[in-house]
C-alpha cells in the first residue's frame, strides 16, 4: 500500500503567514529605497526584489498552484527474504525552486557588492548557485532513490563553490575595505553561511529520505526563509544606511 505525504491545515496556515510577512517586508524595503538617494539604492532594490519573489512564490504555494506530487519507490533488501518496496507519494513544492533560482543569486549579489568581489568571481558564484538550485529541483522529482542522491551530490558540490567564492574570496576583498565593512561582512556572511547550510539538511530529511512530514518541512523552511530574506534584509539595510551616513560604503 502506498504512503501519502501531504500538508494539513497547519502547513497551509504557515504558508499564508509567511506570505504576509514577505509582503509587508517588501513594502518596507521599497519605502526604505525611496528614502535614500538613487545612487545609494542598489542594496535596497536588490533586497526588495528578493522578498517580492518570495511573496509571489509563497502565494503560489498557499493557494496550491506551486505544488506537485512525486512518487518514489524505496527498496528494502533483507537477507533470506524477498525485497520489499515502499511507494511514497509526497507533495513537492516546486515553487520554492523557482523562488530560490532567482532570490539566492540576488542574495549573493548583496553580499558580493558589500565585499567588493570582482566580476569573474561574482559570475562563478551565481552560475554555481543556479546549478545548485536546478540540480536540487531534479533531485526533488526523481523517481528512483540513487539518481536522487546523485543530483543531491552535484548540488552540494555547487554549494561548496559558492562558499569558496564568498568565504575565501569575499572575505579577502572585504578585509581590504574599511574596518566597519570588513566586520559587518564577517557577521552577515557568517549568518548566511550557517543558515544556507541548514537548507540541504532539511531537504535531506524531508524531500530526500522523507523522514519528516510535509507540515514540518513547511515550518522548517518558513523559519529559514524569514531569517534568510526579511531578517537578513533589514539587518543589511539598517547597517548600510547607518554606515553610509558616516560615508564608509556606497
Ligand atoms: C538544496 C538541495 C540540494 C542540495 C543543496 C541545496 C541547497 C539549497 C540552499 C538554499 C538556500 C535558500 C535560501 C532561500 C532564501 O530564502 C537545493 C536544498 C545544497 C542553500 C537562502
Write a structural description.
- This protein is mainly α.
- It is built from seven helices and three strands; from the N terminus they run βααββααααα.
- It has a three-stranded mixed sheet, with no helix packed on it.
- β2 and β3 form a beta hairpin.
- The radius of gyration is 20 Å and the shape is globular.
- The N and C termini lie far apart (60 Å).
- The model has no long low-confidence stretch (mean pLDDT 94).
- It binds retinal (RET).
- The site of retinal (RET) has 18 residues, from α3, α4, α5, α6 and α7.
Largest beta sheet: strand ordering: 1-3-2
What is the structural class? mainly alpha
Query: How large is the radius of gyration?
Result: 20 Å
Main sheet, how many strands, which sense, barrel?
3 strands, mixed
Distance between the termini: 60 Å
The outline comes out as globular
Bound molecules: retinal
Report the portion of residues in β strands. 5-15%
Q: Into which percent range does the helicity of residues fall?
A: over 70%
The stretches of 5 or more residues where confidence is low (pLDDT under 50) are none
The number of helical elements comes to 7
What's the pLDDT, averaged over the residues?
A: 94
How many runs of DSSP E, i.e. beta strands? 3
Order of helices and strands: EHHEEHHHHH
Amino acid at each position: 500500500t502506498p504512503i501519502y505525504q501531504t500538508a494539513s491545515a497547519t502547513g497551509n496556515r504557515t504558508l499564508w503567514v509567511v506570505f504576509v510577512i514577505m509582503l509587508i517586508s517588501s513594502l518596507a524595503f521599497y519605502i526604505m529605497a525611496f528614502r535614500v538617494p538613487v545612487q545609494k539604492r542598489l542594496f535596497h532594490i536588490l533586497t526588495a526584489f528578493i522578498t517580492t519573489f518570495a511573496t509571489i512564490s509563497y502565494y503560489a504555494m498557499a493557494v496550491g498552484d506551486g505544488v506537485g506530487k512525486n512518487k518514489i519507490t524505496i527498496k528494502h533488501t533483507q537477507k533470506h527474504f524477498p525485497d520489499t518496496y515502499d511507494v511514497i507519494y509526497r507533495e513537492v513544492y516546486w515553487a520554492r525552486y523557482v523562488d530560490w533560482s532567482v532570490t539566492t543569486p540576488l542574495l549573493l549579489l548583496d553580499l558580493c557588492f558589500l565585499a567588493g568581489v570582482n566580476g569573474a568571481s561574482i559570475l562563478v558564484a551565481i552560475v554555481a548557485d543556479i546549478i545548485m538550485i536546478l540540480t536540487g529541483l531534479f533531485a526533488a522529482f526523481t523517481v528512483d532513490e540513487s539518481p536522487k542522491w546523485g543530483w543531491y551530490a552535484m548540488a552540494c558540490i555547487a554549494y561548496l563553490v559558492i562558499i569558496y567564492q564568498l568565504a575565501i574570496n569575499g572575505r579577502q576583498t572585504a578585509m581590504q575595505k574599511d574596518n566597519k565593512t570588513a566586520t559587518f561582512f564577517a557577521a552577515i556572511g557568517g549568518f548566511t553561511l550557517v543558515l544556507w547550510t541548514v537548507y540541504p539538511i532539511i531537504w535531506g530529511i524531508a524531500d530526500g529520505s522523507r523522514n519528516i512530514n510535509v507540515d514540518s518541512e513547511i515550518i522548517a523552511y518558513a523559519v529559514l526563509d524569514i531569517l534568510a530574506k526579511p531578517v537578513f534584509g533589514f539587518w543589511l539595510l539598517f547597517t548600510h544606511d547607518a554606515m553610509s551616513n558616516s560615508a564608509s560604503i556606497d
